[in-house]
Amino acid sequence: MKTKATLLLSLLLLMLAGQTTTAQQQRYTVSGYVKDKQNGESLVGISIGKSGTTIGTVTNQYGFYSLTLPAGEHEIQFSYMGYAPYKTTVKLTKNTTIDVRMEATSSQLNVVTVNGQKQERTVNTLNTSINKLDIQQMKKMPTFMGEVDVLRAIQTLPGVNTVGEGSSGFNVRGGNSDENLILLDEAPVYNSTHMLGFFSVFNPDAVKSLNLIKGGFPAEYGGRTSSVLDIRMKDGNNQNLTLNGGIGNIFSRLSVEAPIVKDKGSFIVAGRRSYIDLLMKPFVKGDMKDTKLNFYDLTAKANYKFDKNNALFVSGYFGRDVFGFGKDVNMNWGNSTATVRWNHVFTNRLFLNLTTYYSKYDYSLKFTNDSKKKPGEVEQAYDWTSNIINYGLKPSFTYYINSSNSLHFGVQGIYYTFKPGTGTSVNDGDVHVKKITDQHALESAVYIDHEYKPSKKFGIQYGGRLSAYQFVGTGNAYMYADTTPGIRKRLLDIKQYGSNELIKGYYYFEPRISARYAFSDEHAVKVAYSRTTQFMHQLSNTASPTPLDIWTPSTNNIKPMVADQYTAGYFYNAPNDAYELSAEVFYKTTDNQVDYIDNANLQLNPLIEADLLPSQGRAYGLELYAKKDIGKTTGWVSYTLSRTERKTPGISMNEWFLNRYDRTHNLNLVLTHTFTKRTSLSANWVFASGTPGTFADNRLEFQGWDIPYNSTEKRNNYRLPAYHRLDLSMTLKGKQLKRWKGEWVFSLYNVYGRRNAYTIYFKQNEDDPTKREATRLSIIGSIIPGITYNFKF
């Protein structure tokens, strides 16, 4: 009986195998790359499908696509907003490669109706909580001092806010700024701003695309708990030499693109340099005559396609800020990144991207009394340096099983070196060096997810990520005694570890799932769940992160952050794609966020872990978004209603308290109206609830002095006044010649001169020391005009 059952099972498996083989023989794959006809740039998110059906796919981040169809003749259509639809007929008798060059349309003012497969629409994607912007959209926005800025653009999206002008970083769905993974061509960037937050480090002339992921994270991404900002650089024009640039009243920029070998390889080099210090030099005298205030950056990328299956990309970034008062106070900080990527097509269905990268962030702070030293006074100086360096390796694969199934899988490894700080002080020739021990860590992961679309209405993407983290030597591990929560911990012992010796390891499984159900071609609902972990932390006890804040890894005393996020949303695309709407709700909890005891000492403190506290976080809210892409008036409006709270043992009476960057309401309105082909006007209005702050609610009089204190011991018990601002920008294009194109951009930032409060502090009245008065500190309190001339040759 057992033998018959085994024989029957074998026959069944043989029949299924035969059917599968027959089916495979009748299906073939068409694949290739899609690029811009004019400059050879790879096009991301292009929709490819069989005309008259819902069978289709989209290009990946490198412009590669793969579509499996039955044997026979098919009309295949390529379509995307801003490009003329492209159709081709192919007779599939074998696997076929078709590379396509699409031509950009001269105008997007009129609606172009496309029959059959349409461009990738928000309502059709499986991913939720993802916003995509391209550089053309960003260029339409009102600018600060006439300059296009990536970070200012994303701050107009739902779920994104900042604590105000002069803030280095941004906050997403209740997360701190260090909880955002910022990638430039897959290399992490640790400080994303120039000039203390007023400009981003990303040169708009070198940026091709931008994806902001706030929830429903694909398994490929890890290491942060709030968001992923994935920025891709241009490949460079592989057809002609092109110059792009701009001259403004803050800085100037220039980029050069050219082919290395036409149709096979190209490069781009883009640079910027500010000159505020040069402009103000004639007006600054005395001790301030040598004041330094500038930034510069250089972005470069080259690529070469060896054959239809192999392409190499090399890119890098170097930028620095310099800030100093005369010769006595000098600060500088900056990022450096380098990325090498190899694309390889094993078969028409299997695509590999192998990435290796280097990233460094460093800063220094110097003080001296050399220029002000009087005869007989001793020399005094102080020099503090710190940096973080990491090396990464990431092979990632995409396997296109068929038009309904695809697999994404790979492994990742990152080696970190943290140099928390070295301080050198000089006092009358006596040199004293204080160095915090370097720290080392290895982060690795393996991931896989499956994207399955069994029907036009339903789709699901599910998978997981297995993350491992090792805190290793050479270094010290500190052992502390348990104390009353909120009190500095007492040191018990210090243990030394040798090179690469394991001090503490952490291991996590991070499940990810997203699902979509479409009621029709225009309406869909999506849900998502993701768990994310973060193994590094930025230490800052100020209201806003600064370039001089410290990065530290998870240790035997600092546990990794773990976040669980649930998201659900409704999405709508108009039939002609003229506009889209979305409404999302989210709920996120985070364990092991870093908090601080009162009066924590974070600077050059070898026992800094004694001042840190583990905290719980929770955030929840509603995000509304409406966007219009077609017509003379375009733009978007976003509104976020949210709550962000923390709970820390020993702090705020052990109760939930508002996070320091909580904003209950956050409204952004971005509009652009095109009057003619050469004239357009843009406006941006933002309104946001004030951020919370901790203020005294009582006072104690002692010997004629007024001493304020917080009787409730609650953190963030008050809120700053609401923030709102209007910006305007006008673009006047010159005569667009065949080789030379130019435009003037005139901008007004903070049109009605609102003095938004960055913070409020209290000081004693000069006339009556027994009285205290509140003082509003505003970073920007007046109208700021800007003018820039942009050109392209």
From TrEMBL:
This is Outer membrane receptor for ferrienterochelin and colicin. The keyword Transport applies. It is found in: Cell outer membrane. GO terms for cellular component: cell outer membrane. It comes from Chitinophaga polysaccharea. The keyword Signal applies. Residues 1-23 form the signal peptide. Residues 129-225 form the TonB-dependent receptor plug domain.
